[in-house]
Design goal:
Elements lengths: L3 H7 L3 H26 L3 H18 L1 H10 L5 H27 L9 H13 L1 H4 L8 H16 L17
Helix pairs in contact: 2-3, 2-4, 2-5, 3-5, 3-8, 5-6
């Protein structure tokens, strides 16, 4: 491990450390975005993949998520601008998946993609405030329930994923 005092030999300030944490978090989320885009040509299935993987990532990284959303306000200048740009990219990706699925009539025509994306992200971003690792459900079960609920809210019809088992079965 690195001693607290020697940390500043490698990192110039607390803000620099926070910024690095934020960049690494975004890089991991970006990996999920890329994997979702490459997973299939079907935008609803890309959305399903993305929602499940992001929910799982949030559940497995609650400390990082807490730092990202509670401490990010301390960034300034170019660092703050970069994090805001990354957040817009994240939002835009989700919104585009919803729009593409809506264009193919896989999402209801009355769904506003911007509002749906904000609601989904709001639910996702709150995970670190309520999730308990020793709770009733595993991260995988919560991620699946989150995905199913979000898709049920916006989809024209929600087909079960190809590997779905009976209701209540762990996936």
């Amino acid at each position: 491990g690195v001693l607290k005092g020697s940390l500043y030999h490698y990192i110039s300030s607390k803000e620099e450390l926070l910024f690095r944490i934020m960049l690494e978090s975004h890089a991991q989320a970006d990996g999920v975005m890329r994997a979702a885009a490459e997973s299939t040509d079907d935008p609803l299935e890309q959305l399903r993949f993305y929602l499940r993987q992001m929910a799982l990532w949030y559940l497995q990284n609650t400390e990082r998520v807490t730092i990202y959303f509670n401490e990010g306000r301390w960034l300034t200048g170019e660092r703050l601008d970069e994090v805001r740009r990354q957040r817009r990219e994240f939002d835009s990706f989700l919104r585009s998946l919803i729009e593409k699925a809506r264009d193919q009539r896989r999402v209801r025509a009355d769904v506003d993609a911007r509002l749906a994306a904000q609601l989904i992200l709001g639910a996702l971003n709150s995970v670190s405030s309520w999730y308990k690792p020793d709770g009733l459900y595993s991260p995988q079960e919560i991620a699946q329930m989150f995905t199913d609920l979000m898709l049920a809210a916006i989809a024209a019809a929600v087909p079960a994923p190809p590997d779905a088992g009976p209701p209540g079965a762990s996936r």
